[in-house]
Amino acid sequence: MIVVVSYEGEDHSDAVCACLQRAGRELLRIDLADFPVRNRIALRWRDGAAPQYLLEIAGREVDLAAARVVWWRRVRGFDVDPAILRGQHRAFASSETGQAVHGMLDALGCAWMNPRLADEAAHHKPLQWTLAQQVGLQVPATLVTTRAEEAQRFVAEQGLGQVVFKAFLASIEEWRETRLVTAEDLGRLDLLRLAPVIFQRYIPGVDLRITIVGRRLFTTEIDARHTSYPVDMRMVVGEGRAAAAQLPADIEAKLLALQDRLGLRYGAVDMRRTDDGQYLFLEVNPAGQWLFAERLSGLPITQAVADHLCELDGPAAGP
Question: What is the topology classification, in CATH, of domain 2-113?
């Protein structure tokens, strides 16, 4: 059984689930927002018997102990019963639900894409940059700081107009594009005391979105250099020239080594290729999107994700 931890309407998991269903795979989709109210659980440990991880979903009871692979893909928070009104009581109910549900999932002795705790850690960019350097990837000069004087010094060293600043996580509610630091921004550096900010040397070049599925790499190059916003290709995906591309073998090997160090089976990597042929690592998103890259390049990424899950699941059950 393949367990997909995501939610209806998440278009990437929707597309892969459709592939898995066509392949005749036993599939269970779990939305964490359905806990604790809509999805009920009963976890049992008894002498001489294997643990049971029973879920009741839409009137169907399933023992998660039968799972052979779990795909951890963009999840939502727990939805606490609205009858619980007080904030501290809601927080307690959510915490208790997390202890039970996450503990149940972590106890499953099956393959994961990606392991939940590895996925969580791999979202942290300081860890990514450190490990990327250790495996031999080149990282642009980068500063994370809450100190105005450090940011001022970094911009002076790199040159005004040669530094970008960006957020650690771009959520739907608080989405921010990557921006060049301007003279006006330098007058607001005292605001750094409120939260850390990433400053990074701006690297002109062609964007590379590298989708890694198991040991396979699918590279889409997007040339946004002559678009209306070359600083952040996400803003102008439809304007730039895009095509499938091939990475040098040594870069592929280093990216796979990084995935191994992070404990990931899936990752969406962003890099820049300069005009003189340098490859610079920007980040890896363990839950990154690929449908736009697939549409632009024609690379069969959705099918590759489904195929990898099937490989981890093992032979399909007979009729």
Answer: Rossmann fold (3.40.50)
Measuring CA to CA, how many Å separate 290 from each of 40, 245, 306?
Answer: 33, 15, 13
Alpha-carbon gap, residue 59 to 70, rounded angstroms? 22
Burial class (CB in 10 A: 0-12, 13-18, 19+), 156: exposed
3-state secondary structure of 40: strand
Q: Which helix (H) or strand (E) holds 134?
A: helix 125-134
Which H helix or E strand runs over 148?
A: helix 148-158
Q: Can you tell me the distance from the alpha carbon of 44 to that of 50, in angstroms, rounded to the nearest whole number?
A: 9
136: left (phi over 0), alpha (psi -120 to 50) or beta: left
Cα distances from 283 to residues 70, 87, 274, in angstroms, run: 24, 36, 16
Q: What's the burial of 123, exposed, middle or buried (CB within 10 Å: 0-12/13-18/19+)?
A: middle
Handedness of CA 18, 19, 22, 28 (dihedral sign): negative
Tokens of residue 235, six digits:
């803003």
Question: Mean pLDDT score of the chain, rounded to an integer?
Answer: 95
Whether the predicted pLDDT of 318 surpasses 70: no
Name the CATH topology of 121-138+203-298. Answer: D-amino Acid Aminotransferase; Chain A, domain 1 (3.30.470)
Crossing angle (nearest 10°) for helices 11-22 and 301-313: 60
Amino acid at 233: M
What lies within 8 Å, CB to CB, of 140 at 6+ separation is 200, 201, 202, 203, 280, 282
Share of the chain above pLDDT 70, in %: 97
Report the distance separating Cα 126 and Cα 198, nearest Å: 10
